[in-house]
Amino acid sequence: MTFEYKEIKGQYKVFMKEKSRAQQHSFNYPYQMVRLPDKKVYDDLTNNGYGKISKELARLVDSNAIMSNQGKDADSYTITLKPNKIIVFGTDGLFDNMFIYEITNIIQEYIKNKNFKCSTVHAQQLSRKL
């Protein structure tokens, strides 16, 4: 998500400018990067008494029940950076649990309470707040 802030009558106002689309195969089935097991994993499971789990894992992988995406499957975006633009990268762990107005309010409150300048320190502090 991209947010911009403007100073209006001595107050900073933050608003969402752009939002990427959800990358999912279908509802509640998001893209996922997975490292599928190689032969050594199956052998290790079997040798350590987990042969049943090894067979079930092999069955799931062979049946394509475990969907694996790669980096090339991801969307690519180009964003023009400006001094008043804040880009928020997050997973569904952030965006499924916070409304846009909550993210906007946290950014706005942070900017208001700090002598805000674009810097690594401010980016780290703001990301912790989110």
Give the SSE map:
Elements: E1 2-8, E2 11-18, E3 24-26, E4 29-30, H1 39-47, H2 51-62, E5 85-87, H3 92-95, H4 100-113, H5 120-129
Antiparallel strand pairs: 1-2, 1-5, 3-4
Helix pairs in contact: 1-2
Describe the structure in your own words.
With 130 residues, the chain is of the alpha+beta class. The protein has two domains: 2-20 and 77-129, no CATH class; 30-71, no CATH class. The chain has five helices and five strands; from the N terminus they run E-E-E-E-H-H-E-H-H-H. The strands form two sheets. Strands 2-1-5 form a three-stranded antiparallel beta sheet, covered by helices on one side. The protein has a two-stranded antiparallel ribbon with strand order 3-4. Helix 1 (39-47) packs antiparallel against helix 2. It is elongated and about 70 Å long. The chain starts with a strand and ends with a helix. The mean pLDDT is 86.
Mean pLDDT: 86
Q: How do the helices and strands follow one another from N- to C-terminus?
A: EEEEHHEHHH
- Portion of residues in helices? 25-40%
Tally the helices: 5
Biggest beta sheet attributes:
3 strands, antiparallel
Number of domains: 2
Low-pLDDT stretches: none
Describe the global form: elongated
Strand content: 15-25%
Total strands: the figure is 5
Gap between N and C termini: 13 Å
Strand order of the largest sheet: 2-1-5
Q: Roughly how many Å is the radius of gyration?
A: 22 Å
Instruction: Name the structural class.
Output: alpha+beta
